[in-house]
Design goal:
The protein has helices at residues 22-33, 38-58, 67-99, 112-120, 129-136, 145-149, 156-170, 178-181, 204-221, 240-247, 259-271, 307-317, 349-358, 367-376, 505-508, 534-538; strands at 4-6, 12-14, 109-110, 139-140, 230-234, 251-256, 276-280, 292-298, 318-327, 331-332, 343-345, 363-366, 379-384, 394-399, 404-406, 428-431, 435-439, 447-455, 461-467, 470-477, 481-491, 495-500, 518-529. By secondary structure, the chain is of the alpha/beta class. The N and C termini lie far apart (61 Å). It contains 16 helices and 23 strands. Helix 5 crosses helix 13.
Length: 539
């Protein structure tokens, strides 16, 4: 069904899915909507009404790939606007906390009983935007933190301790039940548009973070204009992102365990004359065994206590060349007071409030653990960040078992990254005389590794291959070899390694100024499970 754009005359016009002309107008619109200087508000409102009309006249609905330019301009406009008014708003924000927030002066770190006293000040209310920020800035101490630091974060014992912390924070000993504990308790708002999150916060800065995050996701979709790709969002909530994607003509489906959130999504989709399929189900389930081109989690993956089996299950829900996109997840670079362990319940005040009030599972992760979890379950990951907006950090994951993976792309290998030279587009060098390592997935059977490599140097290169930290094979790669295949297997460890004798390009090529000591040029890596017959296993 063709979309139409209705001007003030009521005449329909076709809408083309391209974003370039709308970007400049949206810049101005966002800057006006963020104006907070009292002397400019009246004039800004008049300009905004004019700009709304111009946007309706000039805008074209966009393809998801080109939408990035539009929303990056939103970021630039928002950041410059906030910088312009920051000094003038500092005193106003202090006044807001005194007059609007009820939590008073809270310590940055406190015990559970102290937090409970602060929480009682909210009574039955939901935190407003000021209290929302206050709660994010405090963290709690928990007695089991040191215990978790002693355990293997992938072990059942670790998970049991995580669930005990969750029950302590929730305030009762009932087992976690997603069907019960992830309910939003939401009622359909009187106004479908302003009553849905994040709009209901009525905070331009907070909403700008959501807009920037959605722009990151749209870019990560990597779809051409006028695509009709199939998109599945897990934990869609009220579906604000999915409604945007449906307006682009994408085939959208939503799965959420909360019936009330899906009801709000359906009501908005109906009012907007959009087709969005919905199903109430758990993560990994929904819509039978259908597969999708893209699967999205936005501020949702951290509700999955069984995220390991979920990551394995999600590979089965993707079509060939499909992508898994995680955005808005609480992933920290290193341990912090709110996430003092590799993964577990977040201990910031806002997360504990949500656990205590609603029973929601509110996990946090260190990035090293998140990347290792993805690798162990068969995903290679690209991490995309947006300066000034941590919420918009996006993890773009693709299954890597059973296909040749180009290592010259900007893939995040976690701790393995430090063992390689930098990305160079079509390839990545191993460092000379050192071991470059690459993660392998957890599988029921060992892995067969195929390495596509070149040796452009005019001398032979000695290479040693490793299964984990154990050397298993020595080979010689002949001089001037191009795109040869090197086989390694079976591998039983969580990673394999390549150690190559080093060569300095400037020493062998008179025209080179490259002083690095390089090993082997790696183009691609393929990992396949080795199928062991039942007869062989019995022997």
């Amino acid at each position: 069904m063709a979309a139409t754009d209705r001007l003030s005359t009521g005449e329909p016009r076709p809408i083309y899915r391209s974003s370039r002309r709308v970007a400049g107008w949206l810049d101005q619109w966002l800057a006006i909507s963020n104006e907070t200087c009292p002397a400019e508000r009246s004039r800004g409102a008049d300009r905004k009404r004019l700009m709304d009309w111009e946007i309706n006249r000039k805008a074209r609905i966009v393809g998801p790939k080109t939408m990035l330019g539009l929303l990056l301009r939103v970021r630039t406009a928002a950041r410059s606007q906030f910088a312009r008014i920051r000094s003038g708003r500092a005193h106003a924000m202090a006044g807001d906390i005194n007059h609007v927030g009820t939590l008073g002066n809270l310590k940055h770190e406190m015990g559970l009983e102290e937090f409970n006293a602060a929480l009682r000040m909210l009574a039955d209310r939901v935190p407003n935007s000021v209290e929302y920020q206050q709660l994010q800035e405090i963290s709690l101490r928990h007695r089991l933190t040191s215990r978790l630091l002693e355990l293997d974060p992938f072990s059942d014992e670790y998970k049991a301790a995580v669930l005990q912390i969750y029950r302590d924070l929730r305030g009762d000993e009932r087992p976690y039940d997603p069907g019960r504990d992830e309910a939003s308790r939401m009622v359909l708002p009187a106004n479908l548009w302003s009553g849905a999150s994040p709009w209901s916060f009525r905070d331009t800065r907070l909403v700008s973070e959501f807009l920037l995050s959605w722009g990151q996701i749209m870019r990560a979709l990597a779809l051409p204009p006028r695509s009709d790709a199939t998109i599945l969002e897990y934990g869609s909530g009220s579906g604000q992102l999915l409604l945007c994607l449906a307006r682009l003509g994408l085939q959208t489906s939503a799965v959420d365990i909360d019936a009330a959130s899906l009801e709000l999504l359906r009501a908005q989709a109906t009012a907007m004359q959009l087709h969005v399929r919905t199903e109430q189900a758990a993560f990994g389930d929904g819509f039978g065994e259908e597969t999708f081109d893209r699967i999205i989690f936005f501020e949702a993956f951290h509700h999955a206590i069984d995220f390991g089996p979920l990551l394995s299950r999600l590979r089965q829900r993707l079509r060939p060349d499909g992508l898994l996109i995680l955005c808005g997840e609480p992933v920290v670079g290193t341990s912090v007071p709110s996430v003092p362990y590799p993964w577990g319940p977040r201990l910031d005040g806002l997360s504990v409030f949500c656990i205590r009030r609603y029973g929601w599972m509110e996990l946090g992760f260190t990035e090293a653990f998140m990347l290792e979890a993805l690798h162990r379950h068969g995903w290679l990951v690209e991490v995309s960040t947006l300066p000034g907006c941590g919420r918009a950090t996006t993890y773009i994951a693709r299954p890597y078992v059973g296909k040749m993976n180009q290592v010259g792309e900007h893939l995040s290998l976690g701790p393995h990254d430090a063992t390689w030279e930098g990305f160079e587009g079509s390839h990545r060098w191993t460092p000379g005389d050192l071991i470059a390592t690459f993660p392998l997935p957890d599988q029921d059977s060992p892995s067969q590794v195929t390495i596509e490599a070149s040796n452009p140097f005019p001398i032979d290169v000695n290479v040693t291959l490793y299964d984990g930290d154990q050397s298993v094979q020595d080979i010689v790669v002949a001089a001037s070899s191009d795109h040869i295949k090197i086989n390694l297997g079976p591998c039983h460890s969580a990673y394999f390694g390549i150690r190559s004798a080093g060569t300095t390009p400037s020493n062998v090529w008179p025209t080179s100024n490259d002083p690095r000591r390089l090993g082997l040029m790696i183009h691609g890596i393929r990992v396949d499970p080795i199928v062991i017959s039942s007869d062989a296993q019995s022997r």
